[in-house]
């Protein structure tokens, strides 16, 4: 595989807010680290700010451990099992009286108690390591007291203030508001869920944005001509923003890692990850051979295959853009889905063809649908 970005360039990262979906960003960071990509700065909103702190500290193992074992009660003062059942809509084993009691507390206290998250930040985040790091961390939050967005440089903050502002950035609307140093704050996504402008305004010209599609406002940003913006984004759902469950987080870690690998190495595929090795001619020959096997016993010409059968296949697979290499990848991916192969592996075309077999490929090319 060939790296598609310059490994000799420094990059800044913009981390979008998205609550419990944040494991995706740590998975993506892992792939960037393995590829030797140098990160010079991180700007984060909400969970993006918390992940930014973990990234700036440089401890991947700890970050993975945090997310892979996360549960509701580490973030909110709730019962893990009851909260999980409630969010999944599984009401059979719910303690109704306990739920009613908690809802009463929620109304009286005007939100979920996030004391566990406050304590978690103080246990995990090391302000000294962040200030000594060779990269910058920018935290985006919103001051309700002052009615303005704040973009804070972590190295300018004292220990207590740094931890408080990380918490302030992640104050989702469902969380109980508490004053910090006499002021109230809200999740940074209320004004800027993906803090690109912070990095641009501080002179960074190579930016990697890691999306979570979290709730909030996308602040309009003019991208200067000299700035190159790259995006790593999920094509699958990452779960709910309050779904702090280990199983979902572990899936998001994997997805973030492989999506970043797709970005880094130009892998083909939507659900699968295909390291395209074939030339256009090799891909064309594969498609013609596969079509010939699928239409065995029928009269057809090469012109019919090229002008009718393959265009119809491309429409069905939503692969009308690109060349034969792209269509071949789409066909192999469809066959892999039919065979229910695990997507958590990088395949060449030959490896994926061997895994699915020619019969599965022929089943995708259904002449009745052409």
Describe this structure as you would to a colleague:
The protein has 370 residues and is of the alpha/beta class. Helices cover 45% and strands 12% of the residues. It contains 15 helices and nine strands. It has helices at 23-34, 47-57, 60-68, 80-88, 96-109, 115-124, 127-132, 159-169, 196-201, 246-265, 280-294, 302-316, 324-338, 349-356, 358-364, and strands at residues 10-15, 38-45, 136-143, 148-153, 185-186, 206-210, 228-232, 273-275, 346-348. The strands form two sheets. Strands 1, 2, 3, 4, 5, 6 and 7 form a seven-stranded mixed beta sheet that branches. α1 runs parallel beside α10 and α13 (324-338) packs across α15. The radius of gyration is 24 Å and the shape is elongated. The protein starts with 9 loop residues before the first strand and ends in a 6-residue tail after the last helix. Mean pLDDT is 88; it is low at 90-109.
Number of helices: 15
> Taking Cα atoms only, what radius of gyration do you get, to the nearest Å?
24 Å
Mean pLDDT: 88
Q: What gross morphology would you assign?
A: elongated
Q: Low-confidence segments, ≥5 residues, pLDDT <50?
A: 90-109
Helix content: 40-55%
Distance between the amino and carboxyl termini: 35 Å
Structural class: alpha/beta
Beta content comes to 5-15%
Brief sketch in words of this structure:
Helix content is 45%, strand content 12%. It has 370 residues and is α/β, with parallel strands linked by helices. Strands 1, 2, 3, 4, 5, 6 and 7 form a 7-stranded mixed β-sheet that branches. Strands 8-9 form a two-stranded parallel sheet.
